[in-house]
Amino acid sequence: FQVGRPSSFILTPGYEDSVQIIFAPLRPEPFQAFLSLETDDPAQPQYLVPIRGEAIGPKIVVIPDTLHFGWVIVDSTKTLYLTIRNDGKADLLTANHRLEGPDAGDFHFVPPPNVPIPPQGSVMIPVSFRPRSLGRKTASLYIESTDFMNPSVSVVLIGNPTTTGVDDLPRNTGLTLELYPNPVSLSSHGRVALLSRRGGRISVHMTVVDALGRAVRELSKDVQGTDPVILDIAHAGLRAGVYYVRLATVSPEGVVSTVGRLVVSP
After folding, report:
1. Buried b vs exposed e over 43-63: b needs ≥16 C-beta within 10 Å?
2. On the CB side of 22, how many CA atoms lie within 13 Å of its CA?
3. What global pTM score does this model have?
């Protein structure tokens, strides 16, 4: 806070004047102070005025912070999805998305639309891995944003090229994604069935994305054991069209994701 106009003046009887206070916060959080007015009033030579203000700003959250592509046959492509969420109280802008690292040329991504992400909104970025040679591949995807406290974030990308059929390789996955009914009518209620063939406790995150890459539905749930887990998709507010449903699980073994295509009819 600071006083923006001359801080002293003379008032004749019956007149009034104003004091300009400038609020220029440097970080998003609440602030408070007191404006001290010293006068020649013998009954009250000092008057304290409380001043409060809250600075708001965007807050970027990237999920997950590591993309594991697993085993991918050389010269074939596998695509995973990255979610950028705004947990702040002001619009978030991202820019200067870039790949860096020793194997950056084996990874590709589609940058999000150049539009602000509103508070509590999110977008998804498709990231592809197309290895050209054998050997473990790594790179980092950097994202700059208007988040004052965290202006640059990075996501680690990891892939393992192979020339062997992927079905013959060990997998860190036990997921089968079923969307039913599909197509689904706006008047009905769609469901997502997550079938886990592994035991133990896992956290499941479901994101429904429209054709423009915007997340329109999100749901998280903790599950235990190997029984099928049913996650409901609420269709209220959706329009007819093609959507992509991404399921990601987090367990002590790592992050696993799978994507399904859902058609919503009028």
Report:
1. eeeeeeeeeeeebebbbbbbb
2. 8
3. 0.53
CA dihedral over 108, 216, 263, 184, signed as positive or negative = positive
Closest residue by Cα to residue 60 from 99, 28, 104, 101 = 28
pLDDT per residue over 40-83, tens digit each? 888 888 888 899 988 888 999 998 888 988 888 888 899 999 89
* Size of the chain, expressed as the number of residues it contains: 266
Q: Residue 238 half-sphere exposure, CB side, CA atoms within 13 Å?
A: 29
Q: Which two tokens stand for residue 14?
A: 């019956």
Bridge partner residues of 217 (DSSP) = 208
| Region of residue 14 (left: phi > 0; alpha: psi -120 to 50; beta: else) | left
Kindly state the tokens that stand for 161.
Answer: 């090229």
CB 213 within 8 A of CB 123: yes
Are 244 and 209 within 8 A, CB to CB?
Answer: yes
Residue 233 Ramachandran class (φ > 0 left, ψ -120 to 50 alpha, else beta): beta
Backbone angles phi, psi at 61, to 5 degrees: -130, 130
By CB atoms closer than 10 A (0-12, 13-18, 19+), residue 6 is: exposed
What backbone phi and psi angles, to 5 degrees, belong to 175?
-110, 135
